[in-house]
Amino acid sequence: MATSLVDADNLLAIDVGSTHTRAMLFDAVEGRYHLISVGVAMTTARAPLNDLQEGIYEAIEQIQKVTGRTLLDVNGQLVVPSEGAAGVDHVAITLSAGKPLQVIVAGVLPEVSLQSARKLAMTIYSNIRAQIHLNDRLQTEGRINAIVKAHPDAIILAGGSDNGSKQAVLQIAEAVGLATYLIPQGERPEILYAGNAALRKQIGKLLEDLAPLHIAPNLRPEISQEQIVPAQEALLKIFRNVRQRQMPGLQDFLIPLAGHSTLYPTTFGLGRMIGFLSRVYDPSKGVLGVDVGSEATTVAAAWGDESILKTYTSLGLGSNLPALLRRTSVDHIARWLPIGISREEVADYLYNKAVHPDSIPMTTEDLAVEQALTRQILQVALHRAWRDFPGHIRRRFGAQLPYFEPILASGSVFSKAASPGQALLTLLDGIQPSGITTFVIDTNNLLPALGAAADMNPILSVQVLESYHFQPLATVITPVHHITKTGVPILRLEVAIEGGQSGTVEVKTGTLKVITLRPGQVARLKVRPLRRADAGFGPGRRGTITVNGSTLGLIIDARGRPVILPSDPAARIEQNNHWLQVLGG
Amino acid sequence: MKFIRPVTRVTPLATIKHKRLLPISGRVVVNQGQAVKALETVAEAIVQPRYRLINVAQALDVPRAEADDYITCQAGDVVHENDILAEKGGLLRKVVHSPTDGEVLVVGDGQILLREHLPPWELKAGIPGKVTAVYTDRGVEITTIGAVLDGIWGNGKIGYGLVKMLGESGKDAITPDMLNIELRGLVLAGGRLDNPRVLELAEGLSTRALIVGSMRAGMIPAARKASFPVVVLESFGEGGMSASAFRLLSTSENRNAAVVGETTDVYEATRPVIVMPLSTIEQVPQIPVAAPLQEGTLVRIVRAPYQGEVARVISLPKGLARFPNGVRAPGVEVRLENGERTIVPAANVEVFVQSSRSEPN
Predict the structure, then answer these.
(1) Residue in B51, B269, B324 closest to A182 by CB
(2) Pair (B339, B214) in one structural domain
(3) CA distance B14 to chain A (A)
(4) What is the pLDDT of residues A10-25, one digit of tens each?
(5) pLDDT at A282
(6) Are B111 and B232 part of one and the same domain?
(7) Cβ-defined contact of B6 to A47 (cutoff 8 Å)
(8) pLDDT tens column, A175-188
(9) What pLDDT does residue A7 have?
């Protein structure tokens, strides 16, 4: 996939997260784009500073200091476009800081247009406050009250195929219009219409004088056809408008960059790159990206031209941690612990972390709880995302996670983990992959930045993606089986390391096995599943693959799917601890 | 990396500026410069308005276009329950009555939209003081001088009353046997809360507020249900109350305290606060809400293993520090009150402003 350099413009990517702000300078060196330097500062978008520019400029200053380049002028302003050797040509901003957008989704049928509107809303950081549809039993009066009560930032209005229902859409639109009228000017939501195309004129007449109205392609042009992506651009525009109104400093930062910058939600940048990778990698498998952040968790999956992007603002490791308990229990979190910590202490941890969201675990106990929370967040997020996987994928794999190659993970809980083994076990327990996959940690959170940069400099995104910045953590073979008894042979593996040793390994149920394969080494594997286990070639089918070395090498996860943990607390702790030790502790 | 950290105040004398804002636009009912009491209303709004849509066409059994001719009210009219809104005469006279007291907002297309008359939700001052800023339609800033303690969690309620301490030290749990009839109508403060029975008994004593150093997270549902404010000053768990907070509250016994149990919101910069006003004419400096970490800064550590401990910054090492559990993060070297030197994550400290006594050297 070698690409050549056709555009030598440099680019500064800025990722404003809930806790940290990163500035990343990309430039051409010897004909190819590289990541030159990264600056990291605390995010200043929220109290007490309430101006995200402080964090951005501090991160840029760090790059100046390290590289010796001049990026800021004498007044401390970013020089854009570059003037001689000073400044940068383009700026790509990704944003995950800030409260989720309060969104109302409105449609005709709950299982059709409303579901599509929900999917669209979840491609950005949103909190769906109310759902309005024909079967909601609210009548117009109830719908008006529900909308006004929610104080929405945005309303997504869908419904009707392009040659279908008109009256029902107008009935819902009338409620939206009346409710919007009742909200004071200046506080009114932006409205996105993505329903029956034949109604655009009427919808415009009804709503455009009341609030900013955005018209997008129908989410359901046919009742059996769903298209989310074409409407995304309009929703991104709303995201930008709302953020610029709500986030002090953002507008001031953007104005001088006009024409040379892009702004996307971080989650969108990740989704775009996962989609791109899926078209590059083996099309028979999907590509999965997960980002566990302080305020949200994103699941992005793609299978060629099919993709899903799910942003869960109720699943994060920061101030919204208590919301996790609406989706799961303390017992479900505590089951992942490798040390003895009481349920009460886990709950206390959760609330302490919520009031100090940027704090860092310093003790072994705190770290164990943080990683247990991450496992459970991943479990909940993937379980929910699975419902929106394409139908043919769900039919083929059932409740089991489909094959993905690779799986990319972002978030400081992985990139700053105490050891690679802890990062991997957290991912393995949380995701529970199937078949053969490579785990990659996006240490600098580059993927969203590259996704955002692709508008202005697609060559840069491709070349950096090809480069060395993504170090594989491990290649994992998971023979999927449902045998609860441990110690049953489930997989035979012939391993031949190029220029090195070769041998046969038998793996038994209930175990994790590590085969050392260092970065730079290559091995040829003959994989032979036993007892009709599925090791990535279909149930009971054998195959041959070549794998590259990585930080932890080759891992065989024969613990079964789902991973069954002992019910006895002491045995469970011992088991979790044993698996952790197998991966190096 | 620069570390600007939030400031936590546990101090006997400071100028306190406290913003009180409505959740939505409403009406400010006090003026700049006006003195207000803690429980006085400063602004009001219809936070959850209710609308009624009356389908006149359907009620009169006429086409929508025709129905407007029978509507007898117009936008802006104030109506009362059972007032006639529409009427069709003739042999079979039909009328449409108002279902509620309210105001007519829109009339047309055979429908009437009414806003139900509801009493406004009142925003209280929270702390006594002088109104030093008015934010049109949204709220006020109130300024006062006195002792102040910042908390980490509140149940959303406010209260005002005389302070009474429970227990001998900040490490003591508040137990049911500590609560008796002599404590009726007071602001109670103690080290730890882990027994729901304490809240039940406090309810029976018409407690004005409950301030604790720490509380078990499992108590949160019960604390939310309490009719009085519950404020946690330091942590969830069994950490109790720091010596400085316990001392400040103890020396303030029988003084009035305003307890604002606001929920913590990092974007809105709200957090619970206890204020004990002082009548003084001297100028007292205001404490900033955030301050940079630097050598000599007094800090409070918010996470284990030093959770709740007060320390002084010795240095800010460059690069990443490696902590006992293997995690690497920017660190800050501190000296604890017992003289021990250690490095903790910079993200795990808050700048601490407390009374001058017992500050670590």
Answers:
(1) B51
(2) no
(3) 18
(4) 999 999 999 899 999 9
(5) 81
(6) no
(7) yes
(8) 999 999 999 988 99
(9) 56
As a dihedral over the C-alpha atoms of residue B185, residue B187, residue B193, residue B197, rounded to 10 degrees, the angle is 0
Rounded Cα distance between B144 and A258, Å, is: 45
The 10s digit of each residue's pLDDT in B156-185 is 999 999 999 999 999 999 999 999 999 999
User: Across the interface, which of A182, A184, A344 has its CB nearest the CB of B218?
Assistant: A344
State whether residue A373 is helix, strand or coil: helix
User: Which tokens hold the place of A537?
Assistant: 């070639």
Select A101-245's CATH number: 3.40.50.2300, 2.30.40.10, 3.40.50.620, 3.40.640.10. 3.40.50.2300
ipTM above 0.90, yes or no: yes
- Say if CB A183 and CB A166 are below 8 A apart: no
Rounded-to-integer distance, Cα B204 and Cα A345, Å? 30
Query: How close is the nearest chain A Cα to the Cα of B206, in Å?
Result: 28
- The distance of B296 to chain A (nearest Cα, Å) reads 21
CB contact under 8 A, B302 and A148: no
Range of the domain at B156: 4-18+141-277
Cβ–Cβ below 8 Å for B267 and A99:
yes
Q: What is the pLDDT of residue A429?
A: 98
Q: Is A212 helix (H, G, I), strand (E, B) or coil?
A: coil
Chain B residue with the nearest C-alpha to that of A40: B1
The burial of B119, by beta-carbon neighbours within 10 Å (0-12 exposed, 13-18 middle, 19 or more buried), is given as exposed
Total domain count, chain B: 3
Contact A152/A99 with Cβ under 8 angstroms?
no
Element (H, E) at A578: helix A569-582
Cis peptide before B305 (omega within 30 of 0): yes
Decide if B53 and A140 are in contact by the 8 Å CB cutoff. Answer: yes
Compute the distance between CA of residue B193 and CA of residue B173 in angstroms, rounded to an integer.
Answer: 6
- pLDDT of A422 > 90? The answer is yes
What are the beta bridge partners of residue A529?
A491
Contact A49 B218 (CB under 8 A): no
Question: Among partner residues A54, A149, A418, which is closest to B326 by beta-carbon distance?
Answer: A418
- Which chain A residue shows the shortest CA-CA distance from B152? A355
Tell me how many residue pairs between chain A and chain B have CB atoms under 8 A apart: 148
